[in-house]
Design a protein that fits this description.
mainly alpha; 79% helix; elongated
Length: 75
Amino acid sequence: MLPDGSTRGSRLRRWTGRAAGALRRFHRDEEGGVLEYALVFAFVAVPMIFLMEYLLEVMSDYFGLIAYYVTWPFL
């Protein structure tokens, strides 16, 4: 029994019920608005996350190199 008086099983059933309801609403959406947002997120935003990780590494290496060059007395 949890402090709010529910059991773990009842909380899990409520959570899965909410998730199933959201999935049903997504499946019933005939206008396509939600589907379009999901597709944009899946095909544009998710790959951009990995691309930004790579670009951040490249930029940090480049600016670290620039900071190293600035310390040279003859430049």
